[in-house]
Amino acid sequence: MKRDLVAHAPATAVRAAWGGLIEAMLDAVWLVDALTLRIVGANHAAGELMATTPAELVGKDVLELAATPEDLCFWGEVAQGLADRIESDTLVNAANGTTRAVTRRVARVQGDDAPALFIVVLHDRSAQRRVERELEDACADLRATLESTHDGILVTDLAGRIRNFNQRFVRLWQIPAELLERREDDAAVLEWMRRSVADPAAYMRRLAAIDGATTPQASDVLRLRSGTALERVTLPQCLHGRAIGRVYAFRDITEKLEADRRIETLSYTDALTGLPNRRLLADRIEVALAQAKRDGTPFALLFLNLDRFNHINETLGRGFGDRVLLDVAGRITGCVREVDTVARLGGDEFVVLANQADARGAEATARRVMDALKRPFTQGDMSFTVTASVGIALHPTDGASIDALMRRSDAAMREVKHAGRAAFRFHQTRPDGADSQLRSRMRLDHAMRLALAQDRFHLHYQPQVDLKSGAVVGAEALLRWHDPVLGDISPGEFIRVAEESGFIVALGDWVLKRAVAQAAAWADAGLWMPVSVNVSALQFQQPGFVDGVAAVLRDAGLAPQWLELELTESILIQDAQDAMLRLRALAQLGVQLAIDDFGTGYSSLAYLKRVPVGRLKIDRSFVSGLPADESDAAIVHAIIQMGRALRLQIVAEGVETEAQREFLQAAGCDLFQGYLYAPALAAPAFEARVGRTGAGPAL
User: Model's pTM, two decimal places?
Assistant: First the structure.
């Protein structure tokens, strides 16, 4: 209580003596009683700094306003008379709970007849501290940016002195730590860089050129003694539009150069075997063509395709097949001379460019390759053989361009395939008109695809007649095409082209949809008529064929038993196991099945009795000679008897005369179709011909 009285007693006198002086000061000022350490006077600047009024500050214990342990220690020493002056940066607690950064100067004053005072001058450092923090943050951001970039960064002033760098720069140049510790020794770092490059003289000339350049940016590649290649990009460092230094960015493009080299290699070589690819082969053939043009040097192309190689991939896997291809590539390469080129075009196709070789030389090369491939191949504990079909084209006899020679060697190889494989053949000039026929087939294929897109195909329906009752019990859907330019085109002509090109799949799908839609329309109109549709082997082998048939029936709303699919005998012997699964799936669906053109192909009776078919169709070639031709008669009798043994219906195609009909009826044939009753008719004509009667929904 005594201390408080002492503190307040001189306050009025102090303010009277010091008030005018401290109010004139710009900085905040406290007058502190040296005995009690309480504030006895303060100016308005102090009130603003401490977020209060000068009057509220009077009487405050300075220990309450201290914000650091150092301040508490200082005022404790003052209270003990151990200190009377201090100047330092510190913090004080404002009335609103914030902390203010200040520069504080404290001085003790002693009057003759007045108590001792401490004059505390507080210079507000908040703005300065904020700027310092911003600068610190900016420097930290700059450092983080420098260290996060993948490039090595070096910053110099205009005199070449180092101002900044990142650790990536240190690692790229492998600069020793002791050099970096002596930051003032920039010359040592720069000298290290000079000694590190493969060509120091060229490096220094380039630096001089960069310093004297007027362009804002420069780029070059440096090769270090270590083998590393660096891309250097140089930019000016500017401040307020004025250059104050240079920034060098260094990038570890050794990998990029190596990647570029690999890409270049891959662009010219086969990834699996390392042999030249089609691109490099074309370059080599161009060189051979140029040499042949200059001095008449002959050369040959040998086009090789491995026989039935897909069986290896399908049975043993592609990894095994790749190892076989590597062995094949090695054997072929071992059969040719250094001046020759062995290339892999992809898959199991190889080409040999036999330079300086005539027909005899090409044949000798082909025989060496065939002999090399005849030796057994061994992979693990498995031994097997691989054969190849080889087609040969000679320059200039078979062509004067890359395209012509490749096409004709390929064509010769395909002729070997058709003839039985495992042989070689020279390209043979086609008979007059053969090329014209090929172009004609190409035009027909194009016109056919265009016709499907423009809906120019249509279906006709040929009645199928019961031989006993004479009733029409079914209809076979037959495709017809009238082209506005080519006119009427026979199915025998365009179906063959469609099968060769694979277009038969799209065409067959169109026929199936139209025929099923027509059968559904007839059923809705009260004409219950089963419709037969021909299915090609390629169409039947498509992965989604069975599901596609089910979808077509479902979309049209037709019961499956009103659709019959006619399949050729070849379907039964191509991948027999898969064919059996598909046939059983179709039978479970409820679709009727028939074997078309029976007797013209190959059928195993043991296999035939297992397939779920209901009809055999006798090909028209056996019917045309009836009844006079004894061979035809015997064949027809045999087919009918076999069908009866297997409980199958027999349908005869191409019946044109009454004598043929009578023979078939007497032999026990069930149904016939042909011109004797009616040709294939458009849907309205079919309806008019057979009337509004049909087999009925009980079928």
Answer: 0.49
